């Protein structure tokens, strides 16, 4: 951007993350107006009696494919569309492009509301004869009365508003799912070609209207105020251009003056992500490892200036601070002399010679001798000046008067950073040449991800072996080095998650228990309670049948059932699923299978259970709340379920701590599964027994819950009860409490009251009865079975 005499050109600056009024394209307004005019003409044409003789031949179309097949195809495509739409929404949230997501949601709302408005208008003007067949079509039950498909209009509007998706396959899959649903609706006779065309027009109009009303994201520019602030200091820049970010993540500019160049770092008071990140690290990390909070802008500005002055006074190659300005409210500018650097990221491997590596360690040692810690060493904060002298940038995250632990953390970071470029051996050898073997050996306990800067930890993803190679090299040079990692974490993420889950579960249960008379449990109908008990007992036989089908050796039925009861006893002291998994593995081993075969066979049974869980859940959710497939639209239950599942999946994929936790829980289920699965496919009888037992187990649990609800006079659809159980079981499997205790009760009660429509006065005793029959009651016979199996040496 060039500075001109009349002032800076508007909008040429760097985005600071704040969003103001978005760009509004006139073409969006024109499309919205044109679409609205066309839609307004539809009721007028209906009122005039326009109805061609051939109503798009709905009978011929309906005869092409059976409605049941079309319903299945539409169900799959609807699920795909919902999943992809949720994935796009999560991606927009992660990237903090909130206006794009708002535009998509507004387009979906406009499409859904516009379709409803057109339908109401057509019905209002069509008279006693109803809408023309040209728009409604017919089915076996007779003519329909909803010309436009509201769900399709919302989906088309959402897809059109977010049409500029970066992943081409994602965009193709989304529109393919919408197209398949539209074809299913058309071929089933529920709609006609003109009505689908009008539905697409409503969606496109909603997208255009949302595009103009919400607008596109446009960053607020501080280029003009920044230029005025520089002129206040007597600095007349000829050009001002963005230059990425500094080591701390703050936006950076480069200003060209007639005789020199300046670097400008902008600090913001509304940097919420950084504050939250620091708060999390302060909560999770101990003492000097945790970063200073520095919540206020003034505190951060003072600290950045102090670090620069201190490093320059120590003799480091740090640019001189030229000015400190305030270009806008809540924004500060740190202006420094420009020093041209070649960063480590931009250097070729041939340039990283031993003298260059030694120079980096000498420069870091210079800072450390003056008790200055860098705190944010990374590939873009380490480099060399044009004269070849090593230099570090991004000192704003560092510390003066730093304790020895902070300087050792810098050494661990530089060891890791150089190992990523030149290997562990050369990185350690260079450090030993400059610092000495004793100093490098003292860093060994700090070679762990928690000790590294955030940016460097991201570079390590997928290359975790680098830290192991560094430890091996240091241990080889100094066998007496302390090998045990230092405890740097105040609390593990899993501990935080467990505490949060326990708190939420306690609050939910307390809210549900308020005002409920627990004595109503004794009022259960004995017939329905007996049926629930029989179904709960059937769970043990179904679980035994599933295990016998997946294990390649012959297992006695009676003893296998006893093992399932013993598993009920073991799981009261172990997280859900893990106790039974270990006991079944031990039992299969004692029956003559090798340990590897037992682990893989039991893991296969668990894996098949997980694999069948998802499609059953989605199918039951799809039919919940719909008496018939009126227009092939997904139910509200399915929409809520898919959104919840995708949100959880996105969180697991994006948060490393959650991803590690899930992998630790899932890995035992899939260990050695593939060879066993291939062997099982060659034995259809065993496969049928194993899969049949798995499905029967799910059915028995669902029936137990269904009968428990009926025992207290409640009424609920079997599909809705299945959704509640499957979702509650998933929550219990993820909960860190033994047997999912607390989490399962809260999930089941919430599901019965919201999804199945069961009153809380019925749902609470029903859930308690279900848990007594499936969790608590089997404990006593399980204790006896456990000791009996031990006496028989069967476990």
Automatic annotation (TrEMBL):
Highest taxon of the lineage: Bacteria
Subcellular location(s) per record: Cell membrane
CC annotations in GO: plasma membrane
Membrane topology: Multi-pass membrane protein
Stretches that traverse the bilayer: 29-49, 69-90, 102-128, 148-165, 172-190, 196-215, 496-515, 527-550, 562-583, 603-624, 636-658, 687-709, 716-735, 747-770
InterPro entries the UniProt entry points to: L-PG_synthase/AglD (IPR022791)
UniProt keywords, alphabetically: Cell membrane, Membrane, Transmembrane, Transmembrane helix
Major localization class: membrane
PANTHER family: UPF0104 MEMBRANE PROTEIN MJ1595
Name assigned to this protein: Uncharacterized membrane protein YbhN (UPF0104 family)
Biological source species: Nocardiopsis composta
Organism classification: Bacteria, Bacillati, Actinomycetota, Actinomycetes, Streptosporangiales
């Amino acid at each position: 951007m060039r500075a001109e005499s009349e002032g800076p050109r508007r909008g040429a600056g760097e985005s600071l993350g704040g969003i103001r009024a978005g760009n509004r394209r006139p073409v969006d307004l024109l499309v919205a107006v044109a679409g609205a005019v066309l839609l307004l003409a539809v009721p007028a044409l209906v009122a005039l009696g326009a109805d061609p003789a051939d109503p798009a031949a709905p009978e011929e179309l309906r005869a092409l494919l059976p409605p049941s097949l079309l319903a299945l195809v539409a169900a799959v495509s609807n699920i795909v569309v919902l999943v992809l739409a949720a994935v796009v929404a999560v991606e927009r949230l992660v990237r903090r492009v909130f206006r794009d997501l708002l535009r998509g949601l507004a387009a979906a709302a406009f499409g859904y509301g516009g379709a409803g408005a057109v339908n109401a208008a057509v019905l209002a003007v069509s008279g006693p004869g109803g809408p023309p067949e040209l728009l409604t079509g017919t089915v076996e039950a007779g003519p329909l009365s909803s010309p436009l498909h509201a769900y399709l209009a919302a989906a088309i509007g959402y897809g059109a508003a977010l049409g500029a998706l970066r992943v081409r396959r994602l965009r193709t899959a989304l529109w393919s799912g919408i197209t398949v649903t539209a074809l299913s609706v058309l071929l089933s006779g529920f709609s006609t070609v003109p009505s689908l065309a009008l539905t697409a027009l409503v969606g496109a109009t909603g997208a255009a209207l949302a595009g103009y009303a919400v607008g596109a994201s446009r960053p607020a520019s501080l280029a003009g105020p920044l230029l005025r602030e520089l002129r206040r200091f007597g600095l007349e820049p000829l050009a001002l251009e963005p230059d990425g970010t500094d080591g701390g993540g703050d936006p950076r500019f480069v200003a060209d003056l007639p005789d020199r160049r300046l670097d400008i770092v902008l600090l913001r008071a509304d940097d919420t992500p950084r504050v939250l990140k620091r708060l999390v690290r302060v909560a999770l990390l101990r003492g000097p490892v945790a970063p200073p909070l520095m919540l206020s802008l003034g505190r951060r500005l003072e600290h950045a200036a102090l670090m620069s002055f201190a490093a320059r006074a120590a003799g480091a190659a740090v640019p001189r601070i030229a000015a400190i300005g305030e270009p806008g409210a809540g924004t500060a500018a740190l202006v420094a002399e420009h020093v041209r650097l070649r960063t480590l990221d931009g250097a070729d491997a041939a340039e990283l010679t031993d003298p260059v590596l030694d120079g980096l360690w000498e420069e870091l040692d210079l800072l450390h001798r003056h008790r200055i810690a860098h705190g944010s060493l990374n590939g873009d904060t380490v480099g060399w000046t044009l004269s070849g002298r090593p230099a570090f940038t991004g000192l704003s995250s560092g510390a003066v008067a730093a304790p020895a632990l902070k300087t050792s953390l810098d050494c661990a970071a530089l060891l890791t950073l150089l190992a990523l470029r030149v290997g562990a051996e050369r990185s350690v050898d260079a450090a030993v040449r400059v610092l000495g073997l004793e100093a490098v050996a003292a860093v060994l306990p700090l070679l762990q991800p928690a000790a590294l800067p955030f940016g460097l930890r991201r570079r390590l993803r997928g290359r975790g072996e680098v830290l192991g190679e560094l430890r091996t090299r240091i241990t080889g040079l100094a066998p007496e080095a302390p090998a045990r990692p230092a405890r740097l974490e105040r609390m593990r993420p899993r501990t935080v998650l467990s505490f949060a889950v326990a708190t939420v579960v306690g609050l939910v249960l307390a809210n549900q228990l308020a005002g409920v008379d627990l004595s109503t449990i004794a009022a259960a109908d004995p017939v329905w309670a007996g049926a629930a008990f029989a179904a709960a007992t059937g769970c043990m036989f179904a679980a035994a049948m599933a295990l016998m089908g997946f294990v390649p050796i012959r297992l006695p039925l009676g003893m296998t059932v006893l093992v399932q009861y013993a598993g009920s006893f073991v799981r009261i002291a172990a997280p859900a699923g893990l106790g039974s998994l270990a006991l079944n593995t031990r039992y299969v081993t004692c029956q003559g299978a090798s340990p590897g075969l037992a682990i893989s066979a039991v893991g296969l049974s668990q894996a098949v259970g997980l694999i069948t869980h998802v499609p059953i859940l989605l199918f039951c959710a799809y039919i919940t709340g719909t008496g018939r497939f009126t227009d092939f639209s997904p139910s509200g239950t399915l929409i809520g379920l898919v959104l919840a599942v995708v949100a959880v999946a996105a969180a697991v994929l994006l948060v490393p701590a959650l991803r590690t936790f899930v992998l630790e829980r899932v890995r035992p289920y899939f260990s050695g599964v593939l060879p066993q699965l291939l062997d099982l496919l060659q034995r259809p009888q065993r496969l049928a027994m194993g899969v049949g037992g798995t499905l029967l187990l799910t059915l028995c649990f669902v029936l137990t819950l269904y009968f428990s609800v009926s025992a207290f006079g409640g009424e609920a659809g079997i599909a809705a009860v299945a959704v509640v159980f499957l979702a509650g079981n998933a929550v219990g499997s993820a909960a860190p409490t033994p047997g999912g205790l607390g989490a399962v009760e809260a999930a089941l009660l919430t599901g019965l009251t919201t999804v199945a429509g069961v009153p809380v006065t019925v749902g609470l005793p029903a859930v308690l009865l279900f848990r007594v029959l499936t969790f608590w009651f089997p404990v006593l016979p399980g204790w006896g079975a456990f000791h009996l199996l031990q006496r028989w040496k069967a476990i």
